[in-house]
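Researcher: Next sequence.
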Amino acid sequence: MGIMDWLFGGNKPENQRAVSDVQVLVLGDHGAGKRSIIHYYKDGCFVENSYGHTDKSVRCIKNSGNGETHVTFVFDESPDSVAPIFSHKKRDYAIILIVVDLSKDSFSDDVEKYKLYSAKHHSDASILTVGSKMDLLGDKSADIDRDVCLTSAKTGEGLDTFSELLDGVIAQSNERVQLRKT
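Model: Next structure:
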C-alpha cells in the first residue's frame, strides 16, 4: 500500500468507484448523421464536416454518482454488411442506436430494417432510435413513430433530449449487468 492510498483510503472497497463498459452498435445509412450525433454526445458540440469520416468506433467516459462508464460506439452503415462482420464474433452489444435521416422518403422503412436486424442478431440489446435532420422533415412529421427521438444538427433541437435518453439507456444497461452479477 502506498502512502497516498494509506492517507486517503484509496484501496478500500468503499472508496473505489465502480467502472463498467458498455458497447453500443450504431446503425444507419451513410450520411444519416451517426458520427455527428455521437460526437455531440461525447463532446457537447458538433464536428463540422464529419461527413466522410471513417472512424469505426468512438470511446467516451461518462461519470455518475455510481461510478464511471466507458462507452464504446461501434459504427456500421448497413445491416447487410453488419451481419457477417459482427454476428460471427458474438459481440455483446448492450445498446443498438439506430440513426435515420428524416429527410429521406424511406426513413420509416429504414427504421424497420434496422429494428429487424437488431431483433435477429442482438435480441438482448436495448434499442434507441434517433431521427436526424428534423429541420428538413416538412409535412412528413405525422408519419414518425413516437419512439423516435427527433434531432437537428442545424438547429440544435432534440440533442439534449437525445443525450438524456442515451444516458438513461446506459444506466439501465449497467443495472442489468449488476443484476446478472448478483
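Model: Residues 159-181 form the longest helix (23 residues). The CA atoms of residues 103 and 138 lie 8 Å apart.
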